[in-house]
Write a structure and sequence with these properties.
about 725 residues; alpha/beta; Rossmann fold; eight-stranded mixed β-sheet; 25 helices; about 45% helix; binds 2-acetamido-2-deoxy-beta-D-glucopyranose
Length: about 725
């Protein structure tokens, strides 16, 4: 159900006279602060009073100083902090009716009838119970003479919205929970460190990661690190796994691997439901194989550190959506949780999701493991199916191998640049196929190449489009062609994300953090990469809480620059000591980084000074983020499956002849599904001059960025999330991401 812009303009008024409270509960998760910030600012934006509840439900029960009216700047500079600044406590009192009665009194006293809870399924269930009991609690308060009848009538309904904060990614209905991506960052940092230091010794590492009931973290870590063996609660190993695991470890030693990695989720069990502790796995390896084996239990480290860019952006999106959901709620709308589908916020029926999450546990307890995985839905099913493919489909691996060989040979024999590059940046990718078509066709014929997998950026796509268009002239080009989009600019049509973009946004956040600490009364102007495409500037801007992000697609003029200077001056006066302005490298031909630097330096004289930081290739460096590793693995597997199907389908008279548009595609994430889009269809959607898609999904994050920065904006461009039905999602195993 989509609202029109008209309704959203009205939204601003509906917040007036209403009060929203936000609390964080249960185990802390990175990204909770970004959610608190977004709820607070969006709440203030729609004209509501916003209260921060400290120490979770305990603060709600205790009241007093634990419930504080928030101002715009109450949540400044918290987006980059780990944990939760408003605290989160386990609360026994709230599980009793007496405790909830006290909580209801505290809310009514402050006129609060909207509650946003960020926590795990237990916390959200508590919130729902509170809502169901609300009118009877108020009745009791009236009876006891603690509130008047009028007060009870005025506050007769409590709206609840849930944000799922859980590093385990264990909540049904949403693809990602707040904190899971950051936890993966911590795990991958440790695995990477082990891999670089352990190469000199032959060693086996048994890593125990969090996940009592959900193996998501373990599964993705295993895929992203190329682990030899994996134990997760949802997929207990079949009888005899000890022999198979040892054989596998021996096999990889024989193939020359010096390091074995075994990943164990803390809740791993065997098919009889008996726990498999990491120490048991270690002892087994030592006893049977005599390998030098170490156990590392990652524990609390996984909750620590700064939140990843993904979590900050996710939490911001979900927090904004939560406020809209509260504003739209009526006594008849069921309590909802805001989840993520693909990369879009969606409203989920809270209790159905909780029920489903419980069913998973029941299914696992009753050893119906396949059903548990299906019920879990979301990312787990998709990732686990890939894991199964990696472990079982030898054909696929062989095919993958042979495609690699083709590429290697072709490259070593001076294949014209522009095709068949496995890596490379947009700058090093200089020649497009059109200039060398004869030579390319000759090479394809010479090496008997029957399929083409191009991993690259905009040129990769444009190159395949040119090859496709030349098919009428050359039969040799009638072969399946697939583009896996890989560029930090994220400007390839046919996909919402390209490989490398998430890593680049994270790298940008890190660099900005390094340069901006310890300075006072200073505005940083940071230039980001991306050509004409403003994705990096916009997403980095949201993730670091920038005051503005200037991009080419969102034209700006001198008045906008002046408005921002005024805003920064105001901010400095309010003792907020830091300003941050991002500027995409090609956002404006005349308002250059240098121009903006000089403008801000002059206008800010006496109030703040201004420094420039050009991120440049710093954004390309560093280890790939867990998101990119995971996404890359998924795309790689799908691409090779697809190529193999096209080869079979189009094999006639001893050769491959593929000439339909469906055989030359870009592979990518389209809203919710990983899909193949024919390059010829994408042509109409492409702005070739500026090298980007004509319509970019992330553009609708711009109003949110401006709103969160208190920058002049009309929020009527914001497209709210849809209402999602859990039941359908949970069974659509193959769709989604
Ligand atoms: C930049 O300045 C030139 C004149 O030097 C002008 O022709 C051009 O239109 C300006 N560009 C923009 C985007 O305003
Ligand atoms: C070329 O490939 C086809 C199958 O695609 C195969 O039948 C043929 O023998 C190959 N020729 C050479 C020279 O490798």
């Amino acid at each position: 159900v989509k609202m029109s812009s008209m309704d959203l303009e009205k939204l601003k008024m509906t917040g007036a006279g209403r009060a929203i409270a936000v609390l964080t509960s249960g185990g802390d998760a990175q990204g909770m602060n970004a959610a608190v910030r977004a709820v607070t600012r969006m709440g203030i934006y729609v004209g509501a009073k916003v209260y921060l509840i400290y120490e979770g439900y305990q603060g709600l029960v205790d009241g007093g100083d634990n419930i504080k009216l928030a101002h715009w700047h109450s949540v400044t500079n918290i987006i980059q902090q780990g944990g939760t600044v408003i605290g989160s406590a386990r609360c026994k009192a709230f599980t009793t009716r007496e405790g909830r009665l006290a909580a209801a009194f505290n809310l009514v006293k402050k006129g609060i009838t909207n509650l946003c809870v960020c926590g795990g399924d237990g916390s959200l269930t508590g919130a729902n119970l509170f809502r169901t009991e609300w009118s009877s609690l108020l009745e009791e308060l009236v009876q006891k003479g603690r509130i008047t009848d009028t007060m009870a009538k005025q506050h007769n309904h409590l709206n609840i919205v849930g944000l799922v904060g859980s590093i385990d990614n264990d909540f049904c209905g949403t693809d990602m929970t707040i904190g899971a991506d950051s936890a993966l960052h911590r795990i991958m940092e440790i695995i990477d460190a082990i891999m670089t230091t352990a190469q000199s010794h032959q060693r086996t590492f048994v890593l125990e990661v969090m996940g009592r009931h959900c193996g998501y973290l373990a599964l993705v870590s295993a895929l992203a690190s190329g682990a030899d063996w994996l134990f997760i609660p949802e997929a207990p190993p079949q009888e005899g796994w000890e022999d198979r695991m040892c054989a596998r470890l021996e096999g990889s030693r024989i193939k020359g691997s010096r390091l074995n990695i075994i990943i164990v989720a803390e809740g791993a069990v065997d098919i009889h439901g008996k726990p498999i502790p990491s120490t048991y796995v270690k002892d087994l390896v030592v006893k049977r194989l005599g390998y030098d084996t170490r156990v590392t239990v990652l524990g609390h480290v996984q909750r620590g550190g700064t939140p990843s860019a993904f979590d900050r952006i996710l939490s911001s999106k979900l927090g904004v959506e939560a406020v809209i959901a509260l504003m739209e709620a009526s006594p008849t709308t069921p309590a909802c949780a805001i989840g993520l589908s693909g990369n879009h916020p969606v409203r989920l029926p809270l209790m159905e999701c909780v029920e489903m999450t419980k069913l998973v546990q029941t299914a696992m307890n009753e050893k119906r493991f396949d059903e548990a995985i299906k019920l879990r839905g979301g990312s787990l099913v998709k990732v686990s199916s890939i894991h199964i493919i990696f472990n079982q489909a030898h054909d696929l691996m062989i095919l993958f191998f042979s495609v690699q060989i083709i590429k290697k040979e072709a490259k070593s024999k001076d294949f014209p640049a522009g095709v068949l590059r496995t890596t490379g940046t947009s700058t090093s990718f200089l020649t497009l196929p059109n200039k060398h078509m004869e030579k390319i066709v000759e090479t394809i014929a010479k090496f008997n190449i029957s399929a083409l997998l191009v991993i690259g950026g905009f040129e990769g796509y444009e190159g395949v489009l040119q090859l496709f268009e030349a098919r009428s002239r050359y039969d040799e080009l009638c072969i399946p062609m697939c583009v896996i989009p890989a560029t930090i600019s994220n400007n390839v049509p046919g996909t919402d994300f390209s490989l490398g973009a998430d890593t680049a946004v994270n790298a940008g956040c890190d660099k900005i953090k390094q340069s901006a600490t310890g300075t006072k009364r200073r505005v940083f102007v940071v230039e980001t990469m991306g050509g004409f495409c403003g994705y990096l500037a916009t997403c980095t801007g949201i993730a670091v809480g920038a005051d503005a992000a200037y991009i080419f697609e969102d034209p700006f003029n001198i008045h906008d620059l002046k408005t921002n200077v005024d805003h920064l001056t105001e901010k400095m006066k309010k003792d907020i000591q830091r300003g941050l302005v991002l500027r995409n490298e090609k956002c404006h031909e005349n308002y250059t980084t240098d121009f903006i630097h000089k403008l801000y330096s002059s206008e800010g004289k006496g109030v703040f000074d201004c420094r420039v930081n050009v991120l440049g290739h710093l954004q390309q460096g560093g280890a790939p983020s867990p998101f990119d590793r995971n996404f890359g693995t998924k795309l790689g597997v799908r691409a090779v499956q697809w190529i193999s199907e096209r080869l079979t389908e189009n094999f006639r008279q001893d050769r491959v002849f593929a000439n339909s548009p469906e055989t030359a595609c870009v592979l990518g994430l389209n809203r919710k599904v990983i899909a193949f889009s024919p390059v010829t269809d994408l042509k109409a959607e492409t702005d070739f001059e500026h090298r980007m898609p004509k319509v970019q999904w992330w553009f609708k994050l711009r109003p949110m960025l401006k709103m969160l920065a208190k920058y002049q904006t009309s929020f009527c461009e914001y497209v709210p999330g849809e209402i999602e039905h859990v039941t359908r999602r949970s069974i659509s195993i193959d769709s989604g991401f």
